[in-house]
Amino acid sequence: MAHVAGDRQLILVDGRSGAGKTQWARQKQHESGFFLLSLDDIYPGWDGLDAGHRYAFHRCIVPWSRGEVGRLRRWDWGSMAPSGLIEIDPDVNLIIEGCGALSLLTSPYASERYWVEADSNIRQQRAFERDGDTFVPHWHRWSLQEDRFYTIHQSSQLADAVIST
Question: Which of 62, 99, 126, 132 could potentially form a cystine with 18 if both were Cys, beta carbons 3.0 to 4.6 Å apart?
Answer without folding.
Answer: 126
